[in-house]
From TrEMBL:
The lineage of its organism: Bacteria, Bacillati, Actinomycetota, Actinomycetes, Bifidobacteriales. It is a multi-pass membrane protein. This is ABC transporter permease. Keywords: Cell membrane, Membrane, Transmembrane, Transmembrane helix. Residues 81-281 form the MacB-like periplasmic core domain. It comes from Bifidobacterium pseudolongum subsp. globosum.
Amino acid sequence: MFVAKNAWAELRRHPWRTALMVIVSLLVTMWSVFGAAVMHEYHAAHGEGYEALKPQAVVRMTDTALKDRNGDDADWTKRYITWDEYNVLGAAAQAKQVQFDYSVVASVPVRSTDSFKAITTSATSGAGQNETGGDFTLTSFYNEAAVAANEYGSFKVVEGTKLNYQDVTARDVLISQELAKKNNLKVGSTITVGNPANAKTTYTFTVGGIYTYTSTPQGVQGADAQFAKDNRNNVIYTSYYDFAASGLDTTEGTGWAVPDINIVFTLANPQAYEQFKSALKPDLPEGFAVSSPTIDAYNHSLEPLDKLAGTTKIMLICLWGVGGALALLLTLLEVCPRREEIGYGLAVGVTKSRMAWQFMLEILLQTVVGVALGLLIGGWTANPLATQLAQGHTIAMHGGVLWNVTWIALLACLLLAIIAGVRVALFRTAQLAHSPYLNSADPTTKEQ
């Protein structure tokens, strides 16, 4: 009780120094909680989060090869990968014992008609549909897994319903919001498009849903497209069954009637994807490469978190350096000038251990209060603040993160308290002999 009373009295005699120590402890702890939460999420996202991915892999033309593409030259279809070539690639993967599931995406250009016009801009070429195959691209998906690898970006249906991949009788399509507005269409309306090789052959579909894009992959074209069919808002989506039922999934087509087949492979994990990529490399057609839309999208989603983590590392180094220096300075300012107080206490019979405990308690009272407040405030604010700074990437506050900050902070408090206690331990009792108020002949004042 004596020690606690004296420690409290000492803190009250220096309110500004006490308040400053509490504030320093609070700020260092609070921002440490924030930083620890960010770094935990960063390592989790690049560790178990990444390893949990089931990446999709596609074989597509490289950007260099696509530079040679002419959207009004039907000979370009000769560079499409054929079913036979895909069989070779699949066999190469299986030879390396790489297991995979697969789905199919197939597309062809289709012609606009008098009742259904494509979106055009000032950038759109004046080439006719006989040269381009059409002003639209009809893209079909075998199942929902294929949709996830859509080269034009992910989309959501804002009106109507998604495609039905099991109904072989449906003739439903999805069109973009912009295309629906241009043609004054709604869910339930019908559209008619023409065959890419024969304008007299037409296909009629029902608008089952209207979509809008939610992501923009690198290199995808919109209003800047040279050809209307390459503007992603002119892409019409349907099921693979509807595509095949219309006779568009053919191996006998010529020119733009040749379907562009994309096999979407699904692997068990990123390691399997790397093995798959290596297995296919020797047999890839010229100008093609293996990529993973899943991994690309995941890494892109982590960019704000990566940037925040980089800034947080620097912040934590500065925080701990400056905060630790201030806490140490305040501790030394509190205990170093108190030579007379220590000497007097020892002279009147107070033991060194009790004096050291008082000094330690003074430091602990200030720092532990600051740490407790910092943990409370940091625990409540780190999640929303970090999530906002990470631009929507949710950063959860885990109990393990809070516990790690807690015990490290308490160790720091204890270290400062030990420094304060050492000040008393290093006091030389021989100095008491020089006190004008003590009798040097008194044996009670001699060093033991």
